[in-house]
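Quick one, tokens below:
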């Protein structure tokens, strides 16, 4: 009888910027590198600016990666190279060293968005099946889940590498439904990015929750339609599920 009341059975979460706080974790990692590699002595005299520029390049390169314009290795090294160039540092060896250390350290960071563990416990207790669909890389994403204690909550973890597709393409969602044994009408996508998570869910024919951590104005997804639900914190998911 309870199952009849549950509109959704399978909840598909995005990881970075939705439950795992990418910006805070990246900041802590870059601060550590700034100090360990003595970047100030090399000319990076304004850490806040360096970090802000890094985020801009990271976002820009991810967009190019999603469109198939660049490969993952290029994305990873280029965000360091460009952030250093802003401080007139053209040092390929340094960019490479930063890239390697960053990729080692970042996945071990454990800053989650407020109420993340509580909402996972809440949803698990209510017998929802939880899964992840992420455009991130297999090894990195599994490390993030393990170190932050999130891995035990998710039945299936679908990465772009594992599925050979990327959000917002509907193929990654179809692959996810197959792995999870989920039908679209029982499924919902929970993510932060309108043109990736939410548009992808629309493409795949499933409902969506836009997790609007930045409290921006609600944005239409496709054909002026707003997401099925918009929340401004993970706690508000209790009002939906």
């Amino acid at each position: 009888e309870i199952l009849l009341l549950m509109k959704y059975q399978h909840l598909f979460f995005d990881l970075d910027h939705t439950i795992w706080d990418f910006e805070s974790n990246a900041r802590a990692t870059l601060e550590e590198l700034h100090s360990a590699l003595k970047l100030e002595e090399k000319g990076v005299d304004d850490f806040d600016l360096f970090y802000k520029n890094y985020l801009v390049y990271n976002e820009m390169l991810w967009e190019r990666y999603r469109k198939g314009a660049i490969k993952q290795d290029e994305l990873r090294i280029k965000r360091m190279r460009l952030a250093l160039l802003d401080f007139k540092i053209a040092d390929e060896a340094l960019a490479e060293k930063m890239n390697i250390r960053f990729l080692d350290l970042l996945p071990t960071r454990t800053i989650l968005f407020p109420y993340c563990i509580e909402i996972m416990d809440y949803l698990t207790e209510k017998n929802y099946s939880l899964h992840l669909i992420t455009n991130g890389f297999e090894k990195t994403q599994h490390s993030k889940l393990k170190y932050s204690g999130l891995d035990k909550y998710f039945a299936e973890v679908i990465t772009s590498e594992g599925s050979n597709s990327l959000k917002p393409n509907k193929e990654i969602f179809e692959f996810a439904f197959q792995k999870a044994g989920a039908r679209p009408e029982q499924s919902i996508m929970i993510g932060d990015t309108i043109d990736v998570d939410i548009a992808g869910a629309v493409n795949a024919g499933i409902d969506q929750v836009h997790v609007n951590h930045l409290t921006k104005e609600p944005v239409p997804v496709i054909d002026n339609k707003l997401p099925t639900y918009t929340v401004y914190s993970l706690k508000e998911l209790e009002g939906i599920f």
